[in-house]
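ZP: hey, is the iron/sulfur cluster complex queued? I don't see it on the tracker
AM: it wasn't, my bad. submitting now with these inputs:
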Amino acid sequence: MPKTMSKISACEVTDCAYNMNKECHTLAITVGNSECAFCDTYTKMNQKGGASDVIGGVGACRESDCKYNESLECNAGNINVGSHSGHADCTTYKKA
Ligand code: SF4
């Protein structure tokens, strides 16, 4: 189990409500769905959310086949998020 939450170093998905200046400002995202290392917290709406003094972390990750995943938690330390096929994906994901 990780002792600290992995942080989101950068997120390229600027149309997300939690994105300010390519940084994620929600406390924690959840990563992974059945298809890919999807940012399940990605939110597209006019209102901005999160807090400017918070840098987001990975609260949980369902990508059990990622080399950084242990007990469905992220141990990468830092991750990046980018656009993939019209949605947001963890680009640090690496198949074990
Ligand atoms: S990591 Fe996810 S929740 Fe955070 S800004 Fe990017 S898409 Fe939005």
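AM: back. The first strand starts at residue 7 and ends at 11.
ZP: great, adding it to the tracker
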